[in-house]
Amino acid sequence: MAKRNIRIMGDSILNKTSKVIEEVTPKIDTLIDDMLDTMYDAGGVGLAAPQVGVLKRLVVIDVSLEGNEPIILINPEIISTDGEQTGDEGCLSLPGKAGIVTRPNYVKVKAYDRHMKPFEVEGEGLLARAFCHEIDHLDGILYVEKVNGEVHEVTSYDEEEEE
To answer: How many domains does the chain have?
Structure first.
């Protein structure tokens, strides 16, 4: 397993539509592991394959506090939503930035696991937001296109402690 470079906004791959995964090859299996390593190392809660330069419909998410409950979504599709939440949203492809985005508060997704077994998963709150955000990446959509108002700078906890 290895960390991969995260593509930053302005890289054209982030604006392209990803291709469906037909089978999990050893290359895709390695990509899944690398994406998890990359996401955890960067302190993110989600990562889509285009963010590491691969135009495949693959997303990894982990919103657990311990960072030990990864959700792997191959060819994910949102099949139902409910409610609404509005809050700050950031992205590993836009480091140091955030913006207010309105998303569904509940989302149900159908996808395939790393063994190409179909499943459905539901999420509320942060998990619902992560589902929407990461699946948008697969269609070349960045959260900045959905921001209410302006994107703003964010500081990390480390920077605040040093002041």
So the answer is: 1
Identify whether 150 is part of a domain. yes
How far is 141 from 134, CA to CA, in rounded Å?
A: 9
Residue 99 pLDDT more than 80? yes
Binding residues: 91, 133, 137
Catalytic positions are: 134
CA distance linking residue 131 with residue 27, whole number of Å? 24
Sign of CA dihedral 138, 144, 90, 92: positive
**Domain housing 154:** 12-162
**Spatial separation of the C-alpha atoms in residues 140 and 97, rounded to whole Å:** 19
Supply 80's token pair: 């139902």
- Asked, for residue 21, whether it belongs to a domain, the answer is yes
Looking at the domain assignment, is residue 5 inside a domain?
no
Extract the tokens encoding 34: 């690398």
For residue 155, the model assigns a pLDDT of 77
Whether 6 is covered by a domain: the verdict is no
CATH number at residue 128: 3.90.45.10
Residue, of 158 and 95, whose pLDDT is higher:
95
- pTM of the entire structure? 0.93
Q: Examine the pLDDT at 163 and tell me if it is beyond 60.
A: no
The number of residues making up the chain comes to 163
Binding residue ranges for Fe cation:
91, 133, 137
